[in-house]
Amino acid sequence: MDPARYAATAFRCDLLEPDGEILITVAGEVDLDTAPSLGECLARASVRGKPVFLDLTCVSFIDGRGFRVINAAAESAAGAGLYLTVATRSALVGRILSATAASGAQVLVG
Predict the structure, then answer these.
(1) Domain residue spans of the chain
(2) Residue 12 and residue 26: Cα distance in Å, rounded?
(3) What pLDDT score does 102 carry?
(4) Is 30 helix (H, G, I), strand (E, B) or coil?
(5) What confidence tens digit (pLDDT) does each residue in 92-106 have?
(6) Which of 17, 23, 59, 101 has the fewest CB atoms within 10 Å of its CB?
(7) In the predicted model, what is the mean pLDDT of residues 43-55?
(8) H helices of the chain, where?
(9) Torsion of CA 37, 40, 46, 47, to 10 degrees
């Protein structure tokens, strides 16, 4: 067994603004310890008044706390007349977000 294959990816949450759009890329695990950092990143994005694209394609794990943070951001976006687009490679994460996210969230699985 190759231990490097199972090593946890360090959590990262980067906010970028290419061409005036907001892109948040997340890597690693979104859990009790890291969800607050994701929430802060989403809050910084929300004050810019633009739609946000949240890239979770490099997230290896997400727990209930992570889902709550994303759902709160989607509700906030919907309240501001904006939307949050979430991309994930996990069909399960996609189904959970689609079922629980506010009307301000669009979930892309692929």
Answers:
(1) 3-109
(2) 5
(3) 58
(4) strand
(5) 888 888 777 656 677
(6) 17
(7) 91
(8) 3-6, 35-46, 64-79, 91-100
(9) -150
